[in-house]
Amino acid sequence: xxxxxxxxxxxxxxxxxxxxxxxxxxxxxxxxxxxxxxxxxxxxxxxxxxxxxxxxxxxxxxxxxxxxxxxxxxxxxxxxxxxxxxxxxxxxxxxxxxxxxxxxxxxxxxxxxxxxxxxxxxxxxxxxxxxxxxxxxxxxxxxxxxxxxxxxxxxxxxxxxxxxxxxxxxxxxxxxxxxxxxxxxxxxxxxxxxxxxxxxxxxxxxxxxxxxxxxxxxxxxxxxxxxxxxxxxxxxxxxxxxxxxxxxxxxxxxxxxxxxxxxxxxxxxxxxxxxxxxxxxxxxxxxxxxxxxxxxxxxxxxxxxxxxxxxxxxxxx
Length: 317
Known about the structure:
The protein starts with a strand and ends in a 5-residue tail after the last strand. It contains one helix and 23 strands. The protein is elongated and about 80 Å long. The chain has one helix spanning about 195-205; strands spanning about 5-10, 15, 25-30, 35-40, 45-55, 60-70, 75-80, 95-105, 105-115, 125-135, 140-145, 150-155, 165-170, 170-185, 210-220, 230-235, 245, 255-265, 270-275, 280-285, 290, 295-300, 305-310. The protein has an eight-stranded antiparallel β-sheet with strand order 2-1-4-13-6-7-8-9, with no helix packed on it. An eight-stranded antiparallel barrel has the order 15-16-17-18-19-21-22-23. The protein has a six-stranded antiparallel β-sheet with strand order 3-14-5-10-11-12, with no helix packed on it. With about 325 residues, it is mostly beta strands. Residues about 1-20 have low confidence and may be disordered.
């Protein structure tokens, strides 16, 4: 999540890194320069905050971009007009305006517009905060001089999350630039197009750890965790001693999905476990797995005081 400056050259629509080091506010953002933050590939939540000084005698136009690809060919945007400090009188707040839209392969579509009233702190502290926040509940851009007077609901894609950037049409002092993003392990499919292909592979396998496993039973603490589904799992060798775990759609409508990894320990039939939970978080602390008598796979989560067992399926010829 490194903060990088990109400069848009007049000769090309592409963005080139200007190789400026991380900037610590306050700093000056020049016109025609984009301040960019690259997010993790997939995120659980995002809190991005930019605070810009209001100019004394001229309005500043700021563009916020999010969910952008690296070539800046596709993204969503919010154009915000920041009123000058002189517009604010005692008892009379300023009125920023905004436009929402989307940019795709050179074409821009405006989807909404609006305005809100806010009040700047006095003197040189006159500034507007723009804060983009997104999580499972939704996403919004919050704007205001001293508090969130304008709340603009937006669409935000969490996987891939892409780039967030800001640019201005005149040199502007940046008083704050911060980003907090909680990453989520990106979902990925198994190297099999469907459950039938995985089953056919298993029928030819002689590896005793590989197999297809059906949910058997559980011993869980309902306060600490819940079972996302009555999973059917597959364990597939990676070729280097580890085994990837995939969940299988019992109806066969979707491709198997990656759920975790078994890493052999020093004990026979005992493995360190990496497990991808339903929220996309990878659980690794004190998690383990074991295979009993070649027929029962147990996944253990001691910190959650929970375990789940699966029985090996007998595959018909």
